[in-house]
Design brief:
The protein is an alpha+beta fold. The chain contains nine helices and 20 strands. The two termini are 34 Å apart.
């Protein structure tokens, strides 16, 4: 029997990497959700010099390197620090992560809140490792499905509100200063109300205090950034959230590219780029077609990259992408989640179809998470492909 998936309760960083099946996993949090062109080139160099050459984009909009050795880690950290890619110390890295709506502008509330929070987070209480904030104050929220404990959003009336994760409504605030003050008070309240044991805001059952009474509904959510032209540049997708450093380097060959914005949707916004990367270019390992079936799949690295996985997920993902179809009405056949174990690192929410590795085979779950009850067990890779192809053909 495979051992049960081990939930570590913390996320890897750069100062605190995590040992995996293929070496250390080193995670980089881009400041304000952005890397300059020079920083991204430096990260590509780091992936090739000290890692496996792969760069992964996580569902929390972090970038991570795999395959780092313990002996190479100190030199990697020197390189990352030299290029401003890591926090100054482990205490700074432990502060709540800030996830910004990727289309923020220099004069908007999202960026203003991020800058103010960066100044004040050092005075916040100690919070669980996976805690985070979504700063999403554009015309309509886009980060509603991203993991976060506190959210800054626009209300249906156009004002600002602060919403605790797990609640449908939020608390109206007058301006960004008031929003940050309220978030700070809520962070202290969370700890004082037993939140450290709960781990996440949505798991805390305590009623909100009177000073944070909910009085506003958020605006209707907007979709994720579409691939292709964007007012700030060009949006590309990463196959299963993974890309070779050489591919990213080639994407930066156009001198118009000034930097990249990260997203929680396995997409990157290349700032300044105004035309599609030409087919046949070394960067064509990126996704440019919104209809590409890989965009509707959440896939963890699987074995042998992860020590907890009992199956090699990526081969199955590629096979399913080749067989994936559309419903007769042209809509997508639904979201597919492939997980090497029951932890479900690639997707924390339910999916139309989930395949979870167990004892070297797959369990099939319909409409649930990776750890939900399966309708079929013990599937081999070929069995899983045929089973899902039949389901797609029948819907």
């Amino acid at each position: 029997m495979s051992p049960p998936a081990r939930i570590r309760g913390w996320c890897p960083g750069a100062w605190r990497p995590m040992a995996t099946g293929d070496g250390l996993l080193v995670r980089v949090r881009p400041r304000l959700g952005r890397l300059s062109r020079a920083q991204l080139l430096a990260l590509c160099d780091a992936a090739e010099a000290w890692g496996s050459g792969l760069i992964e984009l996580t569902r929390r909009a972090n970038l991570q390197l795999r395959g780092v050795t313990e002996s190479g880690w100190p030199a990697l950290m020197d390189h990352l620090a030299e290029h401003g890619l890591v926090a100054p110390d482990i205490a700074a890295e432990r502060r709540p992560a800030l996830l910004l709506a990727p289309d923020w502008r220099d004069d908007d509330a999202t960026l203003e809140a991020a800058c103010l929070l960066r100044q004040r987070l050092a005075a916040w209480p100690s919070l669980p490792h996976k805690w985070g904030l979504a700063l999403d104050a554009g015309p309509a929220p886009v980060l509603t499905e991203a993991s976060a404990d506190l959210r800054l959003e626009r209300s249906a009336e156009g004002g600002l509100l602060v919403r605790t994760d797990g609640r449908d409504r939020g608390t109206s605030v007058e301006d960004v200063e008031a929003a940050v003050d309220l978030m700070t008070r809520l962070a202290h309240w969370f700890v004082e109300s037993g939140g450290t044991q709960a781990g996440r805001m949505r798991r805390l059952n305590a009623p909100l205090p009177a000073w944070a009474a909910v009085d506003a509904a958020p605006a209707d959510a907007a979709p994720a950034l579409s691939l292709g032209a964007h007012p700030l540049g060009w949006v590309v997708g990463l196959p299963f959230g993974r890309v070779q450093a050489s591919t990213l380097r080639a994407a930066l060959a156009d001198d118009d590219v000034t930097g990249i914005r990260v997203t929680p949707w396995r997409r990157l916004l290349l700032e300044g780029l105004r035309t599609k990367i030409n087919d046949g270019d070394p960067a064509d390992g990126l996704i440019h077609d919104e209809g590409d079936p890989r965009l509707a799949m959440d896939v963890c690295p699987g074995a042998p990259h992860c020590a907890q996985a009992s199956v090699a997920t990526l081969g199955l993902a590629r096979a399913l992408a080749e067989r994936r179809g559309k419903r007769p009405d042209g809509r997508s056949a639904g979201r597919v989640h492939i997980s090497g174990c029951a932890k479900g690192c690639a997707r924390g929410r339910s999916a139309e179809l989930s395949l979870t590795g167990r004892d070297g085979r797959y369990d099939l779950i319909l409409g649930g998470r990776a750890d939900h009850t399966p309708i079929a067990t013990g599937l081999g890779e070929a069995d899983a492909v045929e089973r899902l192809a039949a389901l797609w053909a029948s819907t």
